[in-house]
Amino acid sequence: MKKKTMTQQGAFRKDRNALSRAKKENITTADIINKMAETHSKPNSAQAFAEAAGAIIHVEANMNKETPVNDAFEAILEERRALREACIL
Q1: What is the pTM of this model?
Q2: Is 50 within 8 Å of 37 (Cβ atoms)?
Q3: CA geometry: angle at 75 spanning 71 and 79, to 5°?
């Protein structure tokens, strides 16, 4: 049987639903982060926990209709525009 390819939207939905279900099952974010870190190439390393926490933070931000990557990108563009204008004046 051929495995069905998941879209980015489908992957996000799956993670969003997992976080919602975890809340209902009294599974904490820390529990999820710990479990994710176990599967990292360097389990129990600071990097493993930081990456797992970052993934959770990103999904939660998207769930709250926040766009942290876009916000950072737009801030960089705005800083560059301001620098260009300062150099021109």
Answers
A1: 0.76
A2: no
A3: 175
Domain that holds residue 65: 8-88
- Domain assignment present for 42: yes
Residue 2 included in any domain: no
Sign of CA dihedral 6, 9, 15, 19: negative
Q: What are the residue ranges in the chain where pLDDT is below 70?
A: 1-2, 89
Which pLDDT score is estimated for 4?
78
Residue 1 lies in a domain: no
> Which among 11, 23, 25 has a CA at the least distance from the CA of 58?
11
Within-domain flag for 76: yes
**Nearest alpha carbon to residue 65 among 1, 29, 4, 12:** 12
